[in-house]
Design brief:
With 207 residues, the chain is mainly alpha-helical. It is built from 6 helices and 4 strands; from the N terminus they run βααααββααβ. The strands form 2 sheets. The chain has a two-stranded antiparallel sheet with strand order 1-4. Strands 2-3 form a two-stranded antiparallel sheet. Strand 2 and strand 3 form a beta hairpin. Helix 1 packs antiparallel against helix 2, helix 2 crosses helix 4 and helix 4 packs antiparallel against helix 5. The chain is elongated, with a radius of gyration of 20 Å. The structure holds protoporphyrin IX containing FE (HEM) (2 copies). One protoporphyrin IX containing FE binds next to helix 1, helix 2, helix 4 and helix 5.
């Protein structure tokens, strides 16, 4: 029997699409800006990279505000709460499933329900990415966009250098998150189940 749950309302899907597209543009142009050679050679022409990076950054920033407000005013916010409850035990259970159980065709330890659409590993990674990683990335990015707002020196070290270091570190960590995210999104009932859910809004499971 097919069980169908409506888990991804239109606003979440729109936010996610815009977030994914702007994020990919930022990673691509960020890498190009970072690995520019001393002769000025880069993956994408420098001035073009700067424009794309700045425009995608503004879109990502406003879109992030839309996500935070959306989660406050809608039911979706409940999926980002109570993430500390039984954290270690739940993570262990989910980790063991991904390491061993999945290959023995065991059933998912935390089946998807209307009240719990994320398993504990998804929940903690989404909470950390969206409520810690993204704010640090955006704040450091805004600092680079408006350098006059940054402290000139902090303990004798240039504030601009510190901000750039934080920005690059967060960009790197969130890019790693994206790789793991893409992989774990293939671990639903079938490899495409979760992707279809994010496109159509409905999560289908079969008994
Ligand atoms: C996935 C997201 C992002 C990644 C991977 C990323 C990565 C990078 C990297 C690697 C650089 C070059 C820094 C250097 O090597 O010195 C850079 C520069 C910069 N980033 Fe980002 N960034 C991201 C998002 C953002 C956001 C959200 C903002 C603003 C809100 C932003 C604003 C800037 C600015 C202003 C610069 C300086 C160059 C320019 O004006 O385009 N970035 N970023
Ligand atoms: C090519 C890029 C991406 C693809 C294909 C993708 C795919 C997916 C899929 C299939 C889901 C639904 C499965 C689930 O609920 O876990 C999902 C949810 C989610 N993704 Fe992504 N993703 C991408 C980029 C990103 C990025 C860059 C971020 C954050 C920086 C992100 C954050 C999230 C969050 C927070 C959710 C849960 C949304 C909710 O239902 O409240 N994703 N993603």
């Amino acid at each position: 029997m097919t069980k169908r749950l409506y888990l991804y309302p239109v606003w979440v899907r729109l936010w996610h699409l815009l977030n994914a597209v702007s994020f990919l543009l930022l990673v691509l142009t960020g890498i190009s800006l970072h690995f520019i050679t001393s002769e000025g050679n880069s993956l994408i022409r420098f001035d073009i990279s700067v424009v794309i990076h700045n425009v995608a950054a503004i879109i990502l920033t406003f879109n992030y505000g839309y996500f935070v407000i959306g989660n406050i005013v809608s039911n979706n916010g409940k999926h980002y709460k109570n993430w500390r409850k039984n954290l270690a035990a739940n993570l262990w259970k989910q980790g063991m499933y991904y390491a061993v159980g999945i290959f023995k065709k065991e059933s998912h330890p935390f089946p998807v329900t209307e009240d719990n659409k994320f398993n504990p590993l998804q929940k903690i990674s989404y909470v950390l990415a969206m409520y810690l990683g993204m704010p640090l990335l955006i704040i450091s990015g805004l600092g680079l966009l408006f350098p006059e707002t940054i402290a000139y020196t902090v303990f004798n070290v240039s504030g601009l250098v510190l901000t750039a270091m934080l920005h690059i570190t967060m960009g790197f960590i969130l890019s790693l998150f994206l790789l793991i995210h893409l992989y774990t999104c293939t671990l639903g009932e079938k490899p495409l189940t979760l992707f279809k859910g994010m496109i159509k809004g409905y999560h289908d499971s079969h008994d």
